[in-house]
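Hey L., structure's done. Input below.
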Amino acid sequence: MTIAFLRSKFSGQKLDIAKYSFWGLGAAFIFFSIGHIVKTQGMVEMLPSWVPFRLALVYLTGLLEVVIGVALFVPKYQSPAAKIAIIIFVVFFPANIYAALNNIGLGGHQWGPVYLLIRGPLQLILIAWAYFLCVHGYNKRSLSDSY
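Output:
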């Protein structure tokens, strides 16, 4: 977003906040998906043992995050992808709570469980970003473009 802001200042072009918000969220989702490949076992441990097919679930959710991330770059799919991103953040939240309460460090993360306590507020920020900058911003942009 900072790069987009600076670019708009130097070029004199209007900053399309919604566009760059989608792109930033898309890049974040693609980054998040990498964790499902690089830290697979840590992600599996974040799920309670009673959850079936934990390994497959980690890979599947990683794939879902890539699809959402790519969709956030495609104008036709941006708004639905941002809405799905919000749902994903809400659905994944209990895994972070479970891991934090059960002292499970994410894949040997050097901060250990404290890192997972940080992820909770971060998810709230990302939900706000997805809603206010992408979904709500997209709807405002669509209305203003129609006039």
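Residues 142-147 have pLDDT under 50 and may be disordered. The chain has six helices and no strands.

-- N.
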